[in-house]
Amino acid sequence: MPDESKPLYYWDYLQLDRILDAQRPLSGDDGPAAHDETLFIVVHQAFELWFKQILHELDLVMTIFGRDHVPEKDVGRAVSALRRITEIQRLLIQQLDVLETMTPLDFLDFRDRLIPASGFQSVQFRLIENRLGLTPRHRLKIRGAAYSDVLSREHAGWLHDTEHEPSLLDHVDRWLGRTPFLHFGDFDFWHAYRQAVDEMLARDRRVIETHPNLDEGERAEQIARLEVTVATFAALFDRDRWSALMARGKRRLSHDAVLAALLINLYRDEPMLQLPFRFLMGLVDLDEGFSAWRQRHALLAHRMIGGRIGTGGTSGHEYLEAAAAKHHVFDDLLDLPTFFIPRSALPELPVEVQGQLGFRYSPA
Ligand code: HEM
After folding, report:
1. What b/e readout covers 14-41, taking b as 16+ CB neighbours within 10 angstroms?
2. CB within 6 Å of ligand 1 — which residues?
């Protein structure tokens, strides 16, 4: 219980006794102290504190989107929380510059003492991944082992529980799937959009077939690429094909959710769609922020340990690069621009639909 008679004291409020007493370098116990080990510990601890803050912000976003109805003003709060996380991610990437003032030789002064501990065992990092929706199926396996095999039984238990809880991806999928924007009364948006797409693809085909600067080989190559785009669109227009891609783990968002996300992106200039659009962009920023961090961390590991294995026993920077390439969650949102058509080709929304998507203000 705080003593009410005493004014609050900065040191006590922040529990600095505990925090500042938690840097205990291992070197120096039975040999020369490695000066840089303190930096190594402080940087990791700072990371873990920021991971804690990221989880706190994610909790807010998940509480908002876990509900059956998401009020407009709460979408704004979620957008702000995502923005805060992306700023933290920027800071995390910058912190690695501070760590790189330690040279590989300085690191060698204490590195071997760390084995088998590693950032690979960061429970909070794994929690963030699980909360976002990175499933065991979408993770890299290391020599057939799961990420949780290197954790204490207690920590592995926590993480396994979160694997079975709805993730942010699940919440977003459900929210998008029930968006009212998918159906506009008599106006069949998807028919109109499909016509616009067919015209755009036919135009692209004509350009390739008649372009004077392409030789026959280049023309054939361009047509083959166009066919890939045509097939991608075909999956978008065909629920069964989309479900087949989901079953193979190639797509994560449901067909309805992707159509809603596409619509929100295409008509984002409509006032009612601005906040949902900014929220979707926030998710893309979040995924991109973690990818940027993973790539930067892989470069740091390469520079610090060269081609050696990590203290946690992975192949080191090669594993980290592969994880950076694979461990995404919101790929479906990242891939959406494949389906964009220019504003000028967008089907015009009927006036009553435009009215529904505008802000309404009625003075008392
Ligand atoms: C000298 C600096 C560092 C080196 C050489 C390094 C190296 C590595 C290596 C090689 C791995 C792969 C697992 C293993 O075999 O150990 C790893 C994983 C990891 N490290 Fe670092 N690391 C460094 C700093 C940091 C910092 C400051 C953090 C911040 C918390 C961090 C967080 C992580 C995380 C979260 C993983 C798991 C990544 C994943 O599985 O996708 N590392 N690190």
Report:
1. eeeeeeeeeeebebeeeeeebebbebbe
2. 43-44, 47, 99, 107, 118-120, 122, 125, 294, 297, 300-301, 304-305, 310-314, 316, 319-320, 323
